[in-house]
Write a structure and sequence with these properties.
It is built from seven helices and eleven strands. It has helices at 74-80, 90-100, 117-126, 139-159, 179-182, 201-204, 221-233; strands at 13-19, 25-31, 37-40, 43-46, 58-60, 66-70, 107-111, 131-136, 168-172, 187-192, 208-216. The strands form three sheets. A five-stranded parallel sheet has the order 9-8-7-10-11. Strand 7, helix 3 (117-126) and strand 8 form a beta-alpha-beta unit. It holds the Pfam family TR61B_FKBP-like.
């Protein structure tokens, strides 16, 4: 008897959720493999007990804890995957994607691959006919972003019928040294997540199509001011349309 339709398979990612005190949830991400064990604060759960189960089942660990098993969403994955630098968080990525108005088939430039979080969301947004150019200056970040992207695609291929697009080109190079390459591409949108993004603007601007959006991800308002000062000083053809801070509030509702 084979596994049930939609069941977990060896090699794919699984997310285990355990309710803790004060109604908080602990999330554990694992890649399923026969012979491996999921270790949690609530006990052990062999992977072979997960493989073949349909997502949404509650399984019991060796210590009696109840774990809800499901396939991770992209948001779950980027929050739990291995990290080097601090990632762009899903709440911020969602805002940037909305502001850039990216469509399937678009070509988008990302500077600062980091751990690959933004690369994955861009990949999904532009789809199989689109293209993402992801530049990273650090070798360790470049390799980690590629690995996280590859692991997600491999798991997706096992657990889903449709293929995740292979549409991200990870490039180990300083964007400031890529002026010649930029002359050969037309970009629908640009997103800068790097130190001193103002230095990259003169390089990417000639490739950005008329009316295209350049989103810049910055940590504080001082960096925003420095960016705007550079745009004005260099008389770059950019207009600052919007500066936003994205907040995210979780609510816990307990019945009386």
């Amino acid at each position: 008897v084979g596994p049930r339709p939609g069941a977990f398979h060896a090699g794919e990612l699984a997310l285990a959720e355990m309710r803790r005190k004060h109604n908080t949830t602990l999330k554990l991400l694992c890649r399923l493999a026969v012979g491996s064990v999921l270790a949690s604060p609530g006990g052990l759960l062999p992977h072979h007990e997960i493989i073949g189960q349909v997502p949404g089942q509650v399984l019991v660990t060796s210590a009696g804890a109840r774990l809800l098993l499901r396939r991770p969403s992209l948001e779950d994955y980027v929050l739990l995957m291995p990290r080097g630098p601090t990632i762009a968080y899903p709440k911020d990525i969602s805002a940037m994607l909305t502001m850039m108005d990216i469509h399937p088939g678009d070509t988008v430039l990302e500077t600062g691959s980091g751990s690959g979080a933004l690369s994955l969301f861009l990949s999904r947004t532009v789809g199989p006919t689109g293209h993402v150019l992801s530049y990273e200056v650090r070798d360790d970040h470049h390799n980690l972003a590629k690995k996280n992207y590859s692991h997600w695609r491999a798991s997706w291929a096992i657990g889903h019928r449709e293929e995740w697009p292979d549409n991200v080109e990870f490039i180990l190079k300083d964007i400031l040294a890529a002026a010649e390459e930029m002359k050969r591409v037309t970009l629908d949108a640009v997103v800068l997540d790097m130190l001193s993004p103002q230095s990259a603007l003169p390089v990417v601007q000639p490739s950005l199509k008329p009316g295209g959006v350049c989103a810049v991800y910055l940590a504080n308002i001082t960096q925003v001011i420095d960016l705007l000062d550079r745009v004005r000083a260099c008389r770059l053809p950019f207009v600052c349309e919007k500066i936003i801070e994205v907040t995210h509030r979780n609510w816990l509702v307990i019945p009386a």
